[in-house]
């Protein structure tokens, strides 16, 4: 099990090499060489997941032995849950379907048939119990129960405007889901404790037309940049951090007033003060 003082590094000059860097000793303590260029790296206390151009590789993080290798089809992304439950999600060869793998017991779970069209983005909740996904249209975001293989929520991001979804992230307690897209809009969806009983294993085309919309949204300053989202609780307040590929960081506080929820943009001065406190 690795501590927080370890860092995984893939240098631009050596895209097939992954270095495990110890921040305390300031030395590389482990190096993994892949056959193809590394596109993504995910890890938790027990497992390491490396996505390359042609396959997905699962490693034991203590011995660094290869445990499993998954094929890649059209979409070169994969996800690994943050906690020790170690759930892996990766695209299936079947359109609109995601495969799920128990990385502790090394067995596949029930495939998640979520969309009718090709999937463009997906993300696991921190404990691996939920999976959020969006198709290439990006108009609808669905959340499925990983163990049961059922659709729990179907949110409307936009009624007509299609968009590429850049990021999908759950809050730590799974109460909220946030998304960013090429439209430059940040959305916040609320996962109600009492969900509708209508969905279950329903065929997506038969879902109700009144899909719930986001409970909060705002325009980002970096509209044309790819963005990544993270939830962070600071001084007891839930905040959404948005980082763009140009290095710009925007932070929004989630404000709840009665039944209403909204984003409050933290000013650059307040942001600087928070960074100093951290």
Provide a descriptive summary of the structure in words:
This protein has one helix at 268-277, and strands at residues 6-9, 17-22, 27-33, 38-43, 47-52, 55-60, 66-71, 79-80, 87-91, 97-102, 107-108, 112-113, 119-124, 130-135, 140-145, 150-156, 165-170, 176-181, 185-190, 216-219, 227-234, 237-244, 249-257, 260-265. The protein is 4% helix and 49% strand. It has one helix and 24 strands. Residues 202-206 have low confidence and may be disordered. The chain has one domain (73-271): Methylamine Dehydrogenase, Chain H, CATH 2.130.10.10. The strands form six sheets. Strands 8, 9, 10, 11 and 12 form a five-stranded antiparallel β-sheet that branches. It starts with 5 loop residues before the first strand and ends with a helix. It is mainly beta and 278 residues long.
């Amino acid at each position: 099990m690795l501590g927080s003082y370890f860092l995984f590094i893939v240098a631009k000059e050596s895209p097939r090499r992954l270095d495990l860097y110890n921040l305390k000793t300031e030395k590389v303590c482990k190096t993994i060489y892949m056959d193809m260029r590394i596109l993504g790296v995910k890890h938790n206390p027990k497992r390491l997941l490396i996505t390359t151009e042609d396959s997905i590789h699962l490693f034991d993080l203590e011995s660094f032995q290869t445990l499993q290798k998954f094929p890649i089809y059209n979409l070169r992304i994969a996800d690994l849950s943050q906690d020790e439950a170690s759930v892996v999600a990766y695209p299936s060869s079947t359109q609109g379907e995601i495969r799920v793998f128990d990385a502790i017991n090394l067995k596949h779970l029930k495939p998640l048939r979520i969309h009718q069209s090709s999937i463009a983005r997906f993300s696991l909740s921190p404990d691996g119990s939920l999976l959020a996904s969006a198709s290439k249209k990006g108009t609808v975001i669905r959340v499925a129960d990983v163990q049961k293989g059922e659709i729990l929520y179907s949110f409307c991001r936009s009624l007509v405007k299609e968009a590429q979804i850049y990021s999908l992230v759950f809050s730590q307690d799974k109460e909220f889901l946030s998304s960013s897209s090429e439209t430059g809009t940040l959305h916040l969806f609320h996962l109600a404790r009492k969900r509708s009983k209508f969905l279950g294993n329903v065929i997506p085309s038969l879902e109700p037309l009144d899909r719930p919309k986001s409970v909060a949204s705002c325009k980002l300053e970096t509209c044309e940049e790819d963005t990544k989202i993270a939830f962070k609780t600071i001084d007891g307040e839930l905040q959404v951090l948005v980082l763009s590929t140009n290095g710009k960081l925007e932070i929004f506080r989630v404000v709840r007033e009665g039944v209403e929820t909204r984003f409050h943009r933290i000013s650059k001065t307040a942001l600087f003060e928070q960074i100093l406190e951290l």
